[in-house]
Design goal:
Elements: H1 18-25, E1 35-37, E2 47-52, E3 57-62, E4 65-67, H2 69-79, H3 86-90, E5 92-96, E6 99-103, H4 108-118
């Protein structure tokens, strides 16, 4: 009846590939948390570093937190570093509505890796 295009387009009467149907039917498993950290328009996690007070106060902030930001702060403070380590003793986590601010060091990469490990 109609000729099939060279680049693989199909007509509505033709069946779809089995792999495409399965990928639409079963969404990927996502961990359930009471918070969600959405990525920015470039596809990166919204983790930013800031230096205040002439370089003596180092801050890491996580923006665009949807849900319960205080749960994210509690989980960060307990599981980012091993308990009793020098980093864990310096770590201070505070929340400000949809932002989480971490004081005590330059931990942007560690926070990024932690969020990626959690599935964000």
């Amino acid at each position: 009846m109609f000729a099939r295009c060279l680049w693989g387009a199909r007509f509505f009467s033709q069946p779809a590939a089995a792999g495409a149907a399965q990928s639409l039917a079963s969404p990927p498993a996502v961990a359930k948390y009471s918070f969600f950290v959405s990525r920015n328009s470039n596809g990166n996690l919204p983790v930013y570093s800031d230096i205040r007070n002439g370089g003596t106060r180092l801050l890491v902030s996580i923006r665009n937190v949807d849900g319960n930001a205080s749960d994210l702060a509690k989980e960060l403070s307990t599981s980012l570093f091993k308990a009793g380590s020098p980093e864990a003793r310096r770590l201070k986590v505070k929340t400000n509505h949809q932002h989480v601010v971490i004081q005590g060091g330059r931990w942007t990469q560690e926070v990024n890796e932690w969020l990626k490990a959690k599935g964000f």
